[in-house]
Amino acid sequence: MVMIRAAHPRDTGALADLARTAYARYVERMGTEPAPMQADYASLVDAGQVWVAEHDGDLVGLLVLKLEHDHLLLDNVAVSPDAQGLGIGAQLLAFAEEQAREHCLAEVRLYTNEAMTENLAYYPRHGFIETHRGTDHGYRRVFFSKYL
């Protein structure tokens, strides 16, 4: 069973490790490290923006959510390669939607890198619609939205 909880400061090392392993396969494809590999998880945890997924006591997923005035930004979702295919990513997406509803927000937005082609098919399967593409913070990104 997977449990999703708010991240604690003691999780920051594990969060950074999980991001590095989850995104490692994209480094060669992108020619650089994806932004989540460089994130300051300690600051994000301190800001209350990070949730973790645990399976049998192991940290297997992470979620970074940012409340905006008119939507919830799903800034990062990652699942450990060893736990992929277990539905953890879908559970994290559903949790993000629950958080949006709890904050009376009717939209969840996210983005992914163009080189992460798997995600370009994954997010639409979960109800997200591509809204646009562009360069953001030096990355070629594809932006998605889901109205709840």
UniProtKB/TrEMBL annotation:
Q: What are the N-acetyltransferase domain coordinates in residue numbering?
A: 2-148
Q: Pfam families, from UniProt?
A: Acetyltransf_1 (PF00583)
- Is the keyword Transferase in the record? yes
User: What keywords tag this UniProt record?
Assistant: Acyltransferase, Transferase
Q: Which InterPro entries match?
A: Acyl_CoA_acyltransferase, Bact_Acetyltransf, GNAT_dom
What name is this protein filed under?
GNAT family N-acetyltransferase
- Organism ancestry: Bacteria, Bacillati, Actinomycetota, Actinomycetes, Micrococcales
